[in-house]
Amino acid sequence: MSKTFVLAPDSFKESLSAKEVCRAMEKGIRKVFPDANIISLPMADGGEGTVDALLSAVNGQKVDILVDGSLENQIVHTYYGLIEDGKTAVIEMAKANGLELLSPNERNPLLSSTFGTGQMMKDAFDKGVEKMIIAIGGSATNDGGAGMAQALGAKLLDRNNQEIARGGGNLSQLEQIDLSQFDKRLLDIEVLIACDVTNTLVSPNGASHVFGAQKGASPEMIELLDANLTHFADVILKDLNKDIKDMSGAGAAGGLGGGLFAFSNAKMVPGIDLMIEFSGLEDKVKEADYVFTGEGGMDFQTKFGKVPYGVAKTAKKHQKPVMAMAGYIGKDVDVLYDEGITAIFGILAKAQSVEEALLDGAKNIERTAENISRLLAI
Hints:
Elements: E1 4-7, H1 18-30, E2 37-40, H2 50-58, E3 61-68, E4 75-83, E5 88-92, H3 94-97, H4 115-126, E6 131-135, H5 146-151, E7 155-157, E8 176-178, H6 185-188, E9 190-194, H7 207-211, H8 219-240, H9 252-263, E10 267-269, H10 271-279, H11 281-286, E11 290-298, H12 307-317, E12 322-329, E13 343-346, H13 354-359, H14 361-376
Parallel strand pairs: 1-2, 1-11, 5-6, 6-9, 9-10, 11-12, 12-13
Antiparallel strand pairs: 3-4, 4-5, 7-8
Helix pairs in contact: 1-14, 2-10
């Protein structure tokens, strides 16, 4: 009797998409179980790859669009998704304003803006969507969602009644928010923020202090960005009567979470929970003999809403073994064994540079899947 494998990995960042990871896993498994019933479910947690994973799960439609990138005069050819008969848009902010779209020397959160994300949202409104899922992981920005709001018609005005320039470095000039030309459709639809980040907007646990450095901010820039987001929140409270400063999740994506709370009626949901629902993971896991998952790096933080944790939690309900793979295995990873993961396997065959490891991702995953399968076949 053939075995059933459910493959539900995240992408391996900068190496393979979740779909490519599934393909490599399947190749390895079939070397041992050629007749296996293999169900591939590429997953995501609200970060990079979310729109592709959702479109794959429900056979949605891809919408190509040109938008503004994170920096001035940067144009990005990107896309978002339509699912549920075109009634729901799936927008991944990293597809327009993501960190991976900028080279390391281009990264500057004083200048980067979420304007392109707002342009995708506006295009989706023009197509008549009634619901929006916005995945906000992987951002290059720290503007509190100001650019997104500007793209949707909000006027962010300085003391001279002039529009402030884009970027987190210019928020200190903001005196008034004028919504007379704002696209009110954002207030009339359901907006779900897919994210696993619970940081507040400002303070030592806020967007700038926790995530600013990886976006290119120096220690001095981090202090400035945090002060600017504090000022932005104060003006939002004054003009929009919404207090976003200490809201859980407001600091996600350089404060885009807070901007969405301020300019819409958005609710934040764990991205992995959305993926589990749309992919039908639980029903498929019920029929599985083995579940394979993985992500680029696994450590104690995997427990806080990452794909392997969500997959393991689902499999544990049905007492299914879960084999997890990772490019690297970090601190306190053993906490995951209590959450439903049966075993964790590093995929590297030898000591090599990060660049080499990223290039060898598919080969390493295939070999690891084969070796795991050989153990399972005993």
